[in-house]
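Notes for week 9. Today we move from apo structures to complexes. The key idea is that a small molecule is not decoration. When we ask for a structure prediction with zinc ion present, the ligand SMILES becomes part of the input, just like the chain. The input block below holds both the sequence and the ligand string. Read it once before you look at the output, and try to guess where the molecule might sit.
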Amino acid sequence: MNLNIYKNKLEDEKKLLVEELGTLGKVDKTGDWEATPDTDIVAQDVSDEADMSERAEDYEERSMKLNSLESRLSDINKALENIGAESYGFCENCKKEIEEDRLEANPAALTCKECMEKVF
Ligand SMILES: [Zn+2]
């Protein structure tokens, strides 16, 4: 298995994720991402309640998107850690080697195909 291929893929994806996360929120002191309100909207005056609820909805949407990006990022970080610890490519659940075509499709995969079906 050529680890460098996966490492490069993971690092490329990480870069994109961090960029996208940066448009939605910011990292707090504990290293968690937090959604920030859209700056364009914040700059406007709050005129009525409809505006307010629209803003809350927008924030909710950003939070949801941010959370899913953040969980993807944590998978990627974990996979990168595993590469460093030379335990990359082994299923977290059954400890068998993860199929290469599964890693090909998702370099951040932490489980083999069989376990993926069991877990999800
Ligand atoms: Zn497994």
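The chain has two domains: 3-88, 89-120.
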